[in-house]
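pinging the channel bc i need a second pair of eyes. not urgent but kinda urgent?? the chain im working w is below, pasted from the shared doc
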Amino acid sequence: MPRRLGAIAAVAFGVGLSVLDGAIANIALPTISGELGISSADSIWIVNAYQLAIMVSLLTFSALGDRIGYRRIYIGGLMLFTVSSVACALAGSFSTLVLARVLQGFGAAAVTSVNTTLIRTIYPRRQLGRGMGVNATVVAVSSVAGPTLAAGILSVAHWPWLFAVNIPVGFVALWLSRRYLPENPVKVHDRRFRWRDGLMNALTFGLLMASVEGFSHGLDPRLISVGVAALIVVGFFFIRSQLHETYPILPFDLLRIPIFSVSVLTSVCSFLAQMLAMVSLPFYLQGVFGYDDVQTGLLMTAWPAVIMVVAPLAGILVERIHAGALGGAGLLLMAGGLFLLAFLPEAPSRAGIVWRLALCGAGFGLFQSPNNSILIASAPPERSGSASGMLATARLVGQTTGAALVALLFHLTPENSTHMALVIAACFALLGAVVSGSRLSLPLPEGLARRKR
């Protein structure tokens, strides 16, 4: 148990840093753009460079983990993330900062690509849900805590400290990882890695992300058309090559497992709904009900605060209750909370807003741990890295698409965009609940099936 606690702490520190840094710089973009002498539009690249680097390299790192070991990939990613955080803190120009953010994104991709498969090696099979509960808590809280933490840092220090604070935490995570993370046997027989496939994977996901972002921000349709055409051509050849691979980067072998593919789809729906809500709620609470920045931040804290309680509890419940039923119930709760937020009365009390947000957080926390347990446990042990990478990819696809949909709604229906975003978020959560319920008719992975009985 002491060694297990050290190992889960190592994973929590690394994953928390990588997820947190996806949003922590947002609040400082006006300050950074002013000090570096760049436009507001250009400053967005400080955020996008990080996200793009993760998206294009995530599945590549997970495939490498299957071949050379998950511990090596994780520690290597932590080292790159920590060193590039130093470069971000010392950056004196826009181009240097963006390059450092790209390197930081590659480090974060390596960390998040294998984090859940490390949990599979840390916890005994009968307690996998507990480990997933801890991990779901860290990811959920980190993904929504960035602005609050950034505001606290900027109130006492300059923007480089947003990145400098990663350095001591990164060294602690490295020490814990080297001391406590278990070695894992590499069982994939084909140790060769085809870098051409890695490049095509990067182009496919890079073009996908660029096309979605361009469409949502009203880019010239001709440029979007060129990007989509390139995506279709590159994606076609990439998918065709992957279909004939024994151990593909894009894990079609795992997607052929029904319960795995259903779990990936429900994960996309859940994170899409969450991001739609998290991006639109500040505008909704401030623009419609007149709350200021600080009040909005405090109100929205109810969502992650409840996740911190519910997600570990769900990880324990999955040992007794069918994971598909728990996940479906969680998304139903989340959908109900989102519908209630979308149709708030004209002058709601703060308590009325908080309990609706808490309902959303409870539903999200109840869903994540069981869903992640099914997804990881349904993959063969030697393909755990690819399963972990697919889980992280589903999260990023859902979050990117959700944020893009909010931006698109701002263009299409500026007067009613936040209300529509919450309604659409509720619909995606409801869709996820239906899809999750379909798993009740599918055979559970061996460990979860034994616990169900």
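so The chain has a mean pLDDT of 83. and The first helix runs from residue 2 to 20. — does that match what u expected or am i reading it wrong
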